[in-house]
Specification:
Layout: E1 4-10, E2 13-19, H1 21-31, H2 35-52, E3 60-66, E4 74-78, E5 83-88, H3 105-109, E6 114-120, E7 127-132, H4 139-150, E8 155-162, E9 168-178, H5 184-195, H6 200-205, H7 210-217, E10 223-230, E11 232-233, H8 239-247, H9 251-260, E12 262-266, E13 273-277, H10 278-292
Parallel strand pairs: 5-11
Antiparallel strand pairs: 1-2, 1-10, 2-9, 3-4, 3-6, 4-5, 6-7, 8-9, 12-13
Helix pairs in contact: 1-2, 9-10
């Protein structure tokens, strides 16, 4: 099944559903994540895609989570066209299962810190909001962010199911948001339906697609499907961008790399490695020094 996100409405409610198994699997493989880190990163990337579905074209969103736990900082970018990338600062974290027998994402994330959302609009000033982390489970924290920062009540479900070999067996999420003037009866129906859903990964593992997940959540309501967007892990790093990073280094730091005879620079978001010879580093230093004169 291809990763995709479906947008729909149902009697005064906006609802998105996403299956992200393949792209989360790629991120987990690139960063060599252990289960706790894999689940946290996958949830954050899926959440970023769900948030990005509300954006206009050429906009982008970044979700950053730093809760003081052993995972460190977790960051995910997404655009409405369906591309995402992300990283977790400490990917080799794997905690014992929590009291419910589930991956202890909350323990890995921690509760002493902030969740920050930045919307890149293409204007001079980006829009940034933040709130304190309330649970560390990520979905609850995104719900809290929308309520605190935008006074918007929402329901969000995120999940990543990890197999015994540390691969991603299922990943996805949903986003439900009442529109103005929605009836109390519709809200009650949604609440009852959501209570009967154990987890989004169970639905995906059982073979439900994104449309069927929406129908499950909106059982008893008239659903109108609007748009399907196919999703993919994609990083916009390239050699030129890495060269620009090297040019920002001090003259002494560049000379140290030249003295080493080579440099290997790894992209934090995707793990792609870029190699530079001593001669290439000398050229970068020369250009850098001219620019700083």
């Amino acid at each position: 099944m291809k990763d995709n996100l479906v947008k729909a409405t149902a009697e005064g409610v906006r609802i998105f559903s996403a299956i992200t198994t393949n792209l989360v699997g790629e991120a987990v493989k690139r960063h060599e994540c252990y289960p706790t880190a894999a689940a946290a990163l996958g949830r954050t990337m899926t959440g970023a895609l769900l948030f990005a579905a509300n954006l206009k074209n050429d906009e982008a969103i970044t979700i950053s989570i730093q809760g003081g736990g052993p995972l460190g900082k977790i960051v995910a970018d997404a655009v409405p066209e369906g591309f995402t990338r992300g990283y977790v600062e400490n990917p080799k974290v794997n905690l014992s299962l929590n009291s419910k027998g589930k991956i202890d994402v909350a323990g890995g994330v921690g509760k002493n810190g902030l969740l920050t959302v930045t919307r890149f609009t293409g204007l001079k000033k980006n829009i940034t909001g933040s709130c304190e982390i309330v649970s560390g489970e990520i979905a609850d924290d995104l719900i809290n962010y929308l309520y605190v920062s935008e006074q918007t009540p929402s329901s969000i479900g995120l999940g990543v199911l990890i197999d015994k070999d540390f691969s991603v067996k299922a990943a996805g999420g949903f986003f439900v948001q009442p529109l103005p003037n929605v009836s109390d009866e519709v809200i009650e129906t949604l609440e009852n339906n959501l209570k009967n859903i154990n987890s989004v990964t169970d639905l995906i593992a059982d073979g439900l697609d994104t449309n069927e997940i929406i129908l499950k959540i909106c059982e008893g309501l008239n659903v109108k499907f609007l748009k399907t967007t196919y999703l993919k892990f994609r990083c916009h790093c390239n050699r030129q961008r890495i060269e620009e990073v090297l040019m920002s280094l001090s003259r002494d730091d560049l000379q140290s790399l030249i003295d080493d005879g080579h440099a290997e620079v790894s992209c934090q978001f995707c793990g792609q490695k870029y190699q530079f010879t001593a001669e290439e580093l000398k050229q970068i230093k020369e250009v850098s020094m001219k620019q700083k004169q």
